[in-house]
Amino acid sequence: MGLSRGARLYLRLQERLGWLPPGPRALHQAIWLGLLDPPELNRITRFHYGRPGGFESEAHNLGGLWPWEADVVRGCFAGRHRLLVAGAGGGREAIALVRLGHAVTACDFCPALTAACRRHAERAGVQVRVIEAPPDGLPSGLGIYDGIYAGRGFYHHIPGRGRRIAFLTACRRHLVPGGPLFLSDFFTRPASGRPGVRAARIANGIRRLRGSPEAIEQGDWLSDCLQHAFTPREISSELGEAGFRMERYAVSPFGPGSRLGHAVGIAR
After folding, report:
1. Rg of the chain (C-alpha set)
2. In this prediction, what percent of the chain has a pLDDT beyond 90?
3. How far apart are CA 68 and CA 155, in angstroms?
4. Which among 34, 41, 59, 163 counts the fewest CB atoms within 10 Å?
């Protein structure tokens, strides 16, 4: 799944137009949100996470869970042996969960990261089953798990509500009744206000002209890759539509003004 011509052009322009002030830069990104369809947006995300010098580093992936992640694991995954980590990246969460006594299967759609996950698990001396996944989804051949952990930042990269609910529904099929699904660290936005409305209007106008069947949502934005900022109601609604009850929603404590949140859904 190499970069398309349009995706390569966007990334070149994004790199060269970094000097633009926020307003024109937001307009540039809104236009490309209209020009790039979900498969191309996924290619950009995979390219972003496959670049060296970041999420595949040993220091990051052997560093263990963040305190609030560990709190969720203690509260929701205690006594649950078989876990799936979706969007596992370089293996940070998977390795930490094995060290806590869980049996872990990990998957990601970026080959550079699945290779890093295998390498870091070997370096840590733990056993993790690592599988490559399709964009926005889970691999075939999975079993039933006691809990699923969607890796940090994974959920807000999935383009479009329909694709996100399809991912959640797939998770539900692989969970025991009452099993927890942890969505770790997604971007959030206030329930009131209109951030992102102008960008969505511009992008959707372009998509209508192109005949694209999938709309851009309020809360979508494009920088190094596609991201979506959620309201609490959106998270609850998407979990509910896929067969989950939202058990927990909280702002991740990165400090004052944190825009990241996390949530736990319980399979009905």
Report:
1. 18
2. 81
3. 17
4. 59
- Quick one: 219 and 236 in the same domain? no
Q: Which domain holds residue 216?
A: 5-53+193-227
Tell me the H-state helices in 174-231: 197-210
Q: What is the pLDDT of residue 1?
A: 57
Taking the C-alpha atoms of residue 39 and residue 42, their distance in angstroms, rounded to an integer, is 5
C-alpha span between 89 and 61 (Å, rounded): 9
* pLDDT recorded at residue 193: 67
Is the domain of 74 the same as that of 181? yes
Q: Output the pTM of the full model.
A: 0.94
Sequence-ordered alpha helix ranges (H) in 51-196 = 58-61, 67-76, 92-99, 111-124, 161-173
Could you give the CA distance from residue 251 to residue 262 in angstroms, rounded to a whole number?
Answer: 6
Residues 29 and 149 placed together within one structural domain of the fold: no
Contact 45, 225 (CB under 8 A): yes
* CA distance to 28, 37, 75, 218, per residue, from 212 (Å): 19, 8, 43, 17
